Amino acid sequence: MAETIKSMSDESLTHRLVEAERELVHRRFAHSQGALENTASLRELRKEIARIKTEAGRRESQQGLPRDAIFNKYRKTLGKSQPKAASEESKGGFLQGIVDKLTGNE
Question: Rounded to a whole number, what is the largest CA-CA distance in the chain?
Fold first, then answer.
C-alpha cells in the first residue's frame, strides 16, 4: 500500500484522499446504524487517509509548498477526469451532498 501511494501522481493522490474520506463517512454512517459487518475497516481507512496525507506533506515540504497546497490545487479537478453516468449522479442523494460539503467538493 505504501509503495502504491508513493508512486501515485499528485492528482490521483488527491482523488484517492477524497474517495477514502467519502468511504469513511459512509462506513461510519453504516456503523452507527448497525449495518457495518467489518468494523476494522474503519481503522484501515483512517490509516490510509493518514498515509496519503503524510505522503502529500512530504511532497509539499520537498517542493517548498505551503501545507495542503497539493490538495487545494487538485480538488478542483474532481469529477472532470471521470465522467459520471446519469444513474451515478442520482445515486448519492442527501448523504452524498453532506459528504461533498464535508470534503470540500461542492
Answer: 45
Grid cell locating 4? 502504491
Domain range for residue 94?
A: 2-103
pTM over cut 0.85: no
Residue 13 exposed, middle or buried by CB count within 10 Å (0-12, 13-18, 19+): buried
Domains of the chain: total: 1
DSSP state of 1: -
Average pLDDT (69-76) is 85
Give Cβ neighbours of residue 18 (< 8 Å, ≥ 6 apart): 75, 78, 103, 105
Contact 28, 94 (CB under 8 A): no
